[in-house]
Amino acid sequence: MNETMEQLQPVVASASAPEKLLTVENVTLSFGGVRALSDVSFDIRKGEIRAIIGPNGAGKTSMLNCINGFYHPQAGRITFKGKTRQRMRPYDAARQGIARTFQNVALFKGMTTLDNILTGRTLKMQRSFFWHLFRHGPAMNEEIEHRKYCEEIIDFLEIEHIRKTPVGRLPYGLQKRVELGRALAMQPDLLLLDEPMAGMNLEEKEDMCRFILDVNRHFGTTIALIEHDMGVVMDISDRVVVLEYGHKIADGSPDEVKADQRVIDAYLGVLH
Amino acid sequence: MDILYSIFVDPFVQMGSAPDLLAQTLWEGFVGGILYALIALGFVLIFKASGVFNFAQGIMVVFAALTLVGLYEKGVPAFLALALTIGVMFVLAYAIERAVLRPLVNQPDIILFMATFGLTYLLIGLGEAIFGGNPKVMIAEQLYLPKGAIDLKILGGVVTLQKIDIAAAIIAIAMIAALSLFFQYTRIGRALRAVADSHKAALSVGISLNQIWVIVWFIAGVVALITGIMWGARSDVSFALQVVALKALPVLILGGFTSVPGAIVGGLIIGIGEKIGEFYWGPLVGGATESWLAYCIALVFLMFRPQGLFGERIIERI
Fold this sequence. Notes:
The structure holds 2 protein chains of 2 kinds. Chain A is of the alpha/beta class. Chain A has 2 domains: 164 residues, Rossmann fold (3-Layer(aba) Sandwich); 80 residues, no CATH class. Helices cover 37% and strands 23% of the residues of chain A. In chain A, helix 3 runs parallel beside helix 6 and helix 5 crosses helix 6. In chain B, 71% of the residues lie in helices and 4% in strands. Chain B contains 14 helices and 2 strands; from the N terminus they run H-H-H-H-H-H-E-E-H-H-H-H-H-H-H-H. A two-stranded antiparallel ribbon of chain B has the order 1-2. The longest helix of chain B is centred in the N-terminal third of the chain and has 32 residues. The model of chain B has no long low-confidence stretch (mean pLDDT 84). The interface between A and B is medium-sized, with 32 and 23 residues.
């Protein structure tokens, strides 16, 4: 609760025995007759950056939605931190340490940047309702504590100048950054990023890349991301899983995936 | 010409010649408006947080007041009855979340709206079954609400202020201020605003929608209780009060469904507007304008500002 960003230890990458943070086994998800995911299995190791790529409609976002409990797969198992779950609600996912951002930014538009990031601390604030009612004693100290943590995130993401601006008024690139800030405020074990660079210009993309790498290296946060920009994906991710029409067609290091014939076919199209 | 004179000139001449009467009318409109605003506030809170247009808000006012008086009549001391009624409103909020909102989540808005109709009739039936259908007298004295009136000798005449009206205005203003501080500065207030903005994002940061819904309906219930006490003290407690609660509709149209300041300003406009209209223009049409004038004001607003004074502008991409 009281730890600040500096106190968090950088995680030393231990290549010897990669610990699995999340395992997805044979997950199948359909909406009516439409199969969004068929028998997909992969895992995410602790401390890595894992990319999920694939053409439009491949089921990438559906996969993220399954992981954080928005969707419930009809078949298959998802194990997070050694615990296999049956039907998990997004609330439980957040409790267990999964944070996420959305493809089309989902911020609280009427609230300021600072307030948005503070909502990320919701689960960390445990003082009772009545203390908060009076903003007194322990609740006040707690509020200050969380405020401090959020200010550090704001510094880290270089958004000091918009702390008090209602986020609805911010340009898209900054909104994406605020959304990342809110997810970071949760101090997640697993951070899911749905197209963090979509719609950004080159400079904004470079900034976002830097933030993602920094989050991963300095806080040891495991990251799973969906991204269309292949240059970015191949640069920053440790391992890549490729989906097409809800099936997994490749899984491995960026170089392995790049060389895979099925991936090339999926992206470039193939003559039948 | 006579008719034009009596519409456009005469009322203002009257206002100028008897400012004490004008002040009296304004004051009564102000108090009525504040109470409308309280009812509208209940609607707005629930609409923002759960996207439900709660038709039952008016009946919640009556039900709360009835529970309070009914408990007192059954021999419970006044303040204990007040505490118990607050408890009842919490149980009601919890039950509504469990039995109505949760099973109907993600259904079209109209279905939830219809469900609140059902809730209305359930509450009417429940209230009558337990406490009987006869009008009751609010236990204002036992709750130490002031009685009697103050006569102010100003503006060349006498303006009479009922003490209960003054108390109502003060309590209402204090409650609105407390609520806005609560929303602005507390964790739960922040969570409530978050839910109002985006359910999806709120879920992803670990806010429990179910918990928030219970809290919001509970707050709306407490607002309803306080409104019920005030209205009840001015007239009496009966199901006829729900007609008054319908006045919240024009207030909402004026203020916008999503704006708390809108509910307050809308309430005041409607409250003052209908009193002034009744007093100065009412005689032209034989009186009794109070029952419909508010709706006419709302219609005019709908034509020019369909999103309300403070509502969010509706911009849609085609």
